[in-house]
Amino acid sequence: MKKFVFVVAPKVFRDEEYIEPKIILEQAGVEVTTASTVVGEIYGKIKIKANSQILVKDISVKNFDGIFFVGGGGASVYFEDEVAHTIAKKFYNEGKIISAICIAPVILAKSGLLKNKKATVFPDGADILIQNGVNYTAKPIEVDGRIVTGNGPQVAKEFANELLKLL
């Protein structure tokens, strides 16, 4: 069974960007684990309450086939988070899937993973990607090797299908 870990902010994550990919992956037989800065209840921007099973710092790369950073304003808690950056780099170095949607590609850009790679982001994050050496494409979804980025909640379903293709 394939396994994915979703890294989600404890508050103000984008509901659709969490729930739509989770449903699509689980329907395809992928086990999804939710990680955050807290264990227990986490809160979406609109109405979703979800359950974080593990802390981000406790993510073991060997236990998963990919990592997904969920967007929404709350994702900014990971922009300068060295633990999140290190985990993303470990996934990359192990040949696994790295993905982020909405504003969350900023996390990958600030970790250095997107340097000289094609990526997209919610328009508010475009300058940050460019400043970090990213080939910003402004496309709804961008796939560069094993890295998938999306620009917002409207592409959440298509984004999840791109992850399934890579799995």
Could you name the key traits of this structure?
167 residues; alpha/beta; Rossmann fold; seven-stranded mixed sheet; three-stranded mixed sheet; 5 helices; 29% helix; globular
| Main sheet: strands, sense, barrel | 7 strands, mixed
Structural shape: globular
User: What is the CA-atom radius of gyration, in angstroms?
Assistant: 14 Å
Listing every helix as H and every strand as E from the N terminus to the C terminus, the arrangement reads EEHEEEEEHEHEHEEEH
Q: What's the tally of helices?
A: 5
CATH superfamily: Class I glutamine amidotransferase (GATase) domain
Query: Which stretches of 5+ consecutive residues score pLDDT under 50?
Result: none
- Give a count of the beta strands, DSSP E runs of length 2 or more: 12
Helix and strand composition category? alpha/beta
The name of the CATH architecture is: 3-Layer(aba) Sandwich
Please, what is the average pLDDT?
A: 97
Total discrete domains: 1
The portion of residues assigned to helices is 25-40%
CATH class: Alpha Beta
Our estimate of the beta-strand percent is 25-35%
Strand order of the biggest β-sheet: 6-3-1-7-8-12-11
Give the termini separation.
11 Å
> CATH topology, which one?
Rossmann fold
